[in-house]
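Here is one chain, start to finish.
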Amino acid sequence: MKHRHGLYIVAILATILVSGWLQPGICLADGSAYALSDGHKVHYLDQGRGEPALVFIPGWRCDHTFWRKQADAFAGSHRLIMIDLPGHGKSDKPDVEYTNDLFVRAIEAVMRHAGLERAVIAGHSMGASVARQFALKNPDMVTGVVIVDGALFEMPKDPEQQAKWKEELQGFASQFNGPDGEANTEKFIRAMFVPSTPPEVQEEVVTKMLATPPRVGQSAMKNFMDPALWSEEQVQAPTLAVYADNPELTPEFKAYIGRLFPNLTFVSEKDVGHFYLLAKPEVLNRPLAKFLTKLSGK
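Its structure:
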């Protein structure tokens, strides 16, 4: 009877895993877990041990696997939380507006669920904006901030220029809608590679980003262009910014980043594309290791 009962339990667990259904709070052997935010499941991977802990936020239409090279480098010495933002990866994909606030609430929910009071918050690309907003709204939960080729906009102060700027942002976001939206998305993604980006990395990035539902990507991009996100409120936490060197990386932009993050360490690297965290991870891992050492006071 006990043997049969054991087989029955195994069968139930197998059904749960195969179906992909998990109640929030159940953790898998690989460190996967689910938190509830706004009534929807948010998937995250919890690996490693050690302080300071890090929370990794992917970029537009990306998932937690984009951070695996950082997990390889730091899971032996730090606790790492790698999040699939709502609408992405293994998280629920409800029919809602994918706003910066939605993503911030999801990170709050994950940290509460993981029992994590404070962490270094790292964001890639659009995820850098989410990291910044999280730090502004939850300064007591932030040990430091890491901006990884962050998409951060400086809004003109002149009302006339500001109106034109808003119009240009809306026009940019609109290219990802309609019948040509996904074709334009692929072109946009491929334009962020450099010749040295390995072909296998290029194809992985394109495949995974296009796997995100178009409605999620369209909504996230539209809401990312909200001028309300681009005030110059300052994040006081120690901050590391690591950028791929490009023509947009002007002295004016660096000065703007310095205003947003007054306690800033700024690093840039030539001949690396936007996805260097996968293609050339040492570009991020080297300065990040120094930054974490400094934070821990060792």
